[in-house]
Write a structure and sequence with these properties.
414 residues; alpha+beta; Helix Hairpins; Heat Shock Protein 90; five-stranded mixed β-sheet; four-stranded antiparallel β-sheet; 51% helix; HATPase_dom; transferase; two-component regulatory system
Length: 414
């Protein structure tokens, strides 16, 4: 993944996160604000509706109240009838005009910042007269200046809080985008390394085969016996290609979760005995010492084929990297419901740096000389995957005074 694609993906994740969090905070803030406002105004609205019910249905005039609750009486033309009774409140309240379209509706009235009211206009059940004018409408007023101030103060606090959270959202979204891109970049880099290494591994045997075949073409009259060595070398490289392609296919399926662990009951004693017998014979032919201690007995549930493949990988490596007269020891045991499998040898060993990367794909340790033995560097990566798929653990350490020790621990499932 080049830098441009990386930045584009990171920017997309950042914007998505920032916008998503901002929308969530905005919606939450709006819900809190309108709930708070409704709660404050609901008491005033209930008072207005109660007074309106008395005027419309029972013809009862409300009792004179303080400046918080008042009633304006209007005639048919919209003139205030009880103007003189308002006292010092008359001047500011004279700004209020009657609008018959607002009949029976709760409205907000702002007296130029001096006072703020919730109002309801109702038609009187019976007209009221003072001997000069007749009132047909009553405008009920509930002073909510204090509530409005509280709402405005709360809105300011909410906006400041939203600004702070918006800033935090940007910071967190950027951090999350950076953090979430790390495994993506790591996986992409691993894929790139895998492809590059696979191409390199495939190129070497193909080049050898091509060169040997081209040499054969220059000697059309030669017999098979005369060209025995080039043919044998080509066949060896073909076998290596087959093994490499099989390993690549196994790892590709493992990465895509296409490979399913096929669990079955396995008799451990018989299973391990069948595995070690041929290796004892091979070691004897190569003048190496092979010992086994098969203490693990009983039955457990595993993928028999994969565990067999795991044992083959470990034992093959032990044989490859030991010389004549050196020892290979294979041990199994069960303790605390854990199956322990140990393969130790007194061979070339693995460097300290190699132990950190030994399970990486295509990794070869210079100390072990795996290139000279024809290894592809995929065997232990497959072995690690098999162990992980069984929820187990595999470690590598020095086998003192010389050699390497692999220990596999698997849970015992009866």
């Amino acid at each position: 993944m080049n830098n441009i694609v990386n930045k584009k993906q990171q920017r997309h994740m950042f914007l998505t996160g920032a916008i998503s969090f901002s929308v969530i905070f905005a919606i939450l803030g709006a819900i809190i604000f309108f709930t708070f406002q409704h709660t404050l105004y609901s008491s005033a609205d209930r008072n207005l509706q109660h007074e309106a019910h008395g005027l419309k249905d029972e013809g009862m005039m409300p009792n004179p109240g303080d400046f918080r609750t008042m009633t304006l009486l209007f005639n048919e033309t919209g003139t205030i009838v009880n103007f003189n009774a308002l006292g010092d409140r008359a001047t500011p309240l004279a700004q209020i005009k009657m609008d018959k379209k607002d009949l029976n509706e709760i409205q907000n009235v702002d007296l130029g910042g001096r006072a703020y009211f919730r109002t309801m206009l109702v038609k009187l059940k019976s007209p009221v007269t003072d001997g000069v004018q007749t009132a047909h409408y009553a405008l009920l007023l509930e002073n909510i200046s204090a509530e409005r101030q509280s709402v405005q103060s709360f809105l300011q606090v909410l906006l400041v809080s939203f600004a702070i959270f918006a800033l935090l959202t940007i910071i967190v979204s950027w951090w999350l985008a950076q953090r979430n891109m790390k495994p993506v970049m790591k996986a992409w880099q691993q894929q790139q390394d895998f492809v590059d290494s696979a191409a390199h591994e495939l190129k070497t045997p193909l080049t050898i085969i091509q060169n040997k075949l081209e040499i054969l073409l220059t000697r059309p009259s030669a017999t098979i016996q005369e060209e025995f060595d080039p043919i044998i070398l080509s066949l060896s490289e073909i076998r290596r290609l087959n093994n490499l392609s099989a390993d690549l296919l196994t790892l590709a399926k493992a990465n895509s979760n296409m490979t399913v662990v096929k669990s079955e009951a396995v008799d451990l004693g018989e299973f391990f005995q069948q595995i070690v017998e041929p290796y004892g014979e091979i070691a004897e032919l190569e003048q190496k010492v092979f010992t086994s201690d098969l203490a693990a007995v009983g039955t457990t549930i595993v993928d028999k084929q994969r565990i067999h493949q795991l044992m083959v990988i470990l034992l093959d490596n032990a044989l490859k990297y030991t010389d004549e007269g050196q020892t290979i020891n294979f041990k199994t045991a069960i303790s605390n419901k854990q199956l322990s499998i140990e393969v130790a040898d007194t061979g070339r060993g693995i460097s300290d740096n190699g132990k950190k990367h030994i399970f990486d794909r295509f990794y070869r340790d210079e100390k072990s000389g795996s290139r000279e033995t024809g290894g592809t560097g995929l065997g232990l990566a497959i072995a690690k995957w098999i162990v992980d798929s069984h929820h187990g653990k595999m470690t590598v350490s020095d086998n003192f005074p010389q050699g390497t020790r692999f220990v596999v621990t698997l849970p015992v499932n009866n």
